[in-house]
């Protein structure tokens, strides 16, 4: 019984250590993210309330617009299909929002078939190939950046990243940072090839 207790204790210590290290990696990656001038800016999909971007999505779009105005890229690709409770696709809502801020429609491309980060980037890769784009900046919440970057590398997308942190929704941000631990490890295990 004592041996079992020791094994259980050591297992818990190891799990806590992995948890802390992974969380630290996600936080540091998000904070230190720096965009590089590229062919396009990819705005990863997020919820839409009816016809309008949710606060998280809106801040991602604002970040993309800021980068666009600073000439980091000429094109913006907005991602996301139409989910439950959404009147239009996330990509369409993102496009409308950016047009409202003054971006010309011809410089906004839509990827409106995806329901996950992997699908976002897989479909964007196809758009990039058709357009001859060689590089991209991925925009999302800070907690999401490391996993998005890992997927981009897997898909051979030459990408830098830029993140947002929505202060007025800090509780949801904290939940995102915690939830992302399992999502990141899931992506890592998917990437590993069997011997």
From TrEMBL:
Keyword Membrane: yes
Membrane-spanning residues: 7-31
PANTHER family: ENVELOPE BIOGENESIS FACTOR ELYC (PTHR30336:SF4), INNER MEMBRANE PROTEIN, PROBABLE PERMEASE (PTHR30336)
GO biological process, any: Gram-negative-bacterium-type cell wall biogenesis
Stretches assigned to coiled coil: none
Lineage, uppermost ranks: Bacteria, Bacillati, Bacillota, Bacillota incertae sedis, Caldicellulosiruptorales
Keyword annotations of the record: Membrane, Transmembrane, Transmembrane helix
Species of origin: Caldicellulosiruptor obsidiansis (strain ATCC BAA-2073 / JCM 16842 / OB47)
One of the record's GO cellular component terms: plasma membrane
Residue stretches making up the DUF218 domain: 39-180
Name of the protein this chain belongs to: DUF218 domain-containing protein
Entry-linked Pfam families: DUF218
């Amino acid at each position: 019984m004592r041996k079992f207790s020791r094994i259980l204790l050591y297992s818990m210590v190891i799990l806590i250590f992995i948890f802390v290290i992974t969380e630290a990696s996600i936080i540091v990656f998000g904070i230190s993210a720096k965009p590089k001038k590229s062919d396009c800016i990819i705005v990863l999909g997020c919820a839409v309330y009816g016809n309008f971007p949710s606060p998280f999505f809106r801040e991602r779009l604002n970040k993309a617009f800021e980068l666009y105005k600073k000439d980091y890229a000429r094109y913006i690709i907005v991602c996301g299909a139409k989910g439950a409770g959404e009147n239009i696709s996330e990509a369409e809502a993102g496009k409308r929002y950016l047009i409202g801020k003054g971006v010309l429609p011809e410089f906004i491309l839509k990827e409106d078939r995806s329901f996950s980060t992997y699908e976002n980037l897989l479909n964007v890769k196809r758009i990039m190939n058709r357009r001859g784009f060689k590089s991209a900046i991925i925009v999302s919440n800070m907690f999401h950046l490391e996993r998005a970057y890992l997927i981009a590398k897997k898909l051979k997308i030459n990408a830098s990243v830029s993140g947002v942190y929505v202060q007025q929704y800090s509780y949801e941000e904290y939940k995102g940072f915690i939830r992302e631990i399992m999502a990141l490890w899931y992506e890592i295990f998917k990437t590993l090839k069997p011997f």
